[in-house]
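ugh ok fine here u go
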Amino acid sequence: MTPEALGAHVTAAIAGSVAPGAVAPGAVATVSFGQLTVDVEATAWHEAAAFARDDATVGCGFFDWLSAYDDRDAGLAVVLHVWSVRSRHHLFLRTRVPRDGGRLPTLTDLWPGASWHERETYEMFGIVFDGHPNLVPLLLPDGFEGNPLRKEFILASRVAKSWPGAKEPGESDHDAASPGRRRMLPPGVPAEGEWGQTP
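structure:
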């Protein structure tokens, strides 16, 4: 089955599974470089994942990974990648949640292997997975504040030490105080006075 045909099958099934009189959650399939991505509303996240696993045509019973990325104004995007061993096709399922208070139902009841991935996504992006059996920090030290993979998170290590990258022509560590060039800040470092405590 082609990615386009598989996408049409998945989107039609998700739209048709809504109870009569309810608002259809909708699903949009896109194919890019032969890769199928189905975007669903957050309210249909668990239902769409269960369909991808259990439907005879889709049959994506192999959980590969789940993660997220910061999509700026569109919110936080959560992506699930699953694979069909029998049919040898795969599917990216994607949804978006708000930056503040983003929540999704857990997929650990469908794939127990999703537990680690949801814990990491919770810790790095602050997305809560309702019903997760053990949603506790996984990688960061105790007492760490913030979600380091969000765009607004400031990497303090870049502020504390000089950028190790290549120097611009005329720049060196020895002539940093000379008035010849404006000092450039590395990516992710705010201008002086925008970060930390104000005097």
